[in-house]
Write a structure and sequence with these properties.
Residues 10-272 form the CheR-type methyltransferase domain. The chain has 292 residues and is of the alpha/beta class. It has ten helices and ten strands. The N and C termini lie far apart (71 Å). The chain binds S-adenosylmethionine.
Length: 292
């Protein structure tokens, strides 16, 4: 006679339960608010979800799912918790130095320079780039398109106001990036805050753009997307890299974060390393493409 199953026999072990809750959360977020996190790397997404559940006093991820469904005002907090909008000015200064010394001289040959900064978080990289372009005499023929999926992050980015406690480190980064003035020349300090000079915004357009669902953005000569792909699974990284390839002019540059590379991507085959140590890649120029 077949043994009867009891409820104890069909218990689901903890890791699997985690994955079920994660899937349900992702579906709820997509169906209710249109944000697709289904292709984010699950391990880090789970970690951030647990943290967020904790911060919002939810006992489980399912508790968080319920709140996401019924409390739309929570969405900005949820996006912030899931996407980690942390950054700093002149982050990895050697990369900015390389951009300034090796990439800017090549960009200088274009009458107008379009730069797309994807995943701009609170804007620290945007202002860093604007400062270096200004010092290289290129800013007045540049346009920076700074995008992110988070409205709140873009709002913070356009304000350009940061805690003064970061200023010393950022000032050191600026010098290490080859800055020729003093960072203080580009900001004013108030009570515990610094505000970046709003003149630096004159060639910046902030816009919502989601690398998981949106299309080609502009015809860019340089794209920076640093410390974003690291949160994506391989197919989403491939999608984003194909988007960058299709948005770049021939001979255009792509700069990724130091912990990122082109490896898992089909689109990678279209790029050549330019300065690998700084994770700067390049599409072949028209002439190189013809000889390939
Ligand atoms: C860790 S921050 C990186 C900030 C900056 N690029 C840097 O390296 O300092 C990651 C940013 O990517 C954004 N992001 C995450 N997923 C995105 C997506 N699918 N489309 C556009 N931006 C995204 C987040 O909102 C966040 O602001």
């Amino acid at each position: 006679m077949a043994a009867r199953l009891t409820m104890n026999d069909i218990k689901v072990d903890a890791p699997e339960l985690d994955s079920i809750e994660l899937d349900l959360f992702v579906q709820a977020l997509q169906k209710r608010h249109g944000y697709d996190f289904s292709e984010y790397a699950p391990a880090s997404l789970k970690r951030r979800l647990r943290l967020l559940a904790d911060q919002l006093h939810c006992k489980t991820i399912t508790g968080l799912t319920e709140r996401v469904l019924h409390e739309p005002q929570l969405l900005p907090n949820v996006l912030e918790g899931l996407t980690v909008p942390t950054s700093e000015m002149f982050r990895d200064p050697a990369v900015f130095r390389t951009l300034r010394e090796k990439v800017f001289p090549l960009l200088a040959s274009y009458p107008l320079i379009n730069i797309w900064q994807a995943g701009c978080a609170h804007g620290q990289e945007v202002y860093s780039l604007a400062i270096l372009l200004e010092e290289a005499g290129l800013y007045d023929r540049s346009q920076i398109f700074a995008t992110d999926l988070s409205d709140r992050a873009l709002q913070r980015a356009s304000e350009g106001i940061y805690s003064v406690k970061d200023a010393q480190q950022w000032s050191r980064n600026y010098q290490a990036a080859g800055g020729t003035h003093s960072l203080a020349d580009y900001c004013s300090a108030g009570y515990k805050l610094i505000k970046l000079n709003q003149r630096l915004r004159r060639h910046v357009t902030f816009a919502l753009h989601n690398l998981a669902i949106d299309g080609v953005f502009c015809e860019a000569h340089l794209i920076l997307c640093r410390n974003v792909l690291i949160y994506f699974s391989d197919p989403l990284q491939d999608r984003a890299l194909a988007l960058f390839r299709d948005s770049l002019v021939r001979g255009g540059f792509l700069c990724l974060g130091l912990r990122e590379n082109l490896n898992p991507s089909h689109a990678a085959q279209d790029f050549s390393p330019f300065i690998e140590s700084a994770r700067i890649y390049r599409l072949p120029t028209q002439a190189e493409g013809a000889h390939a």
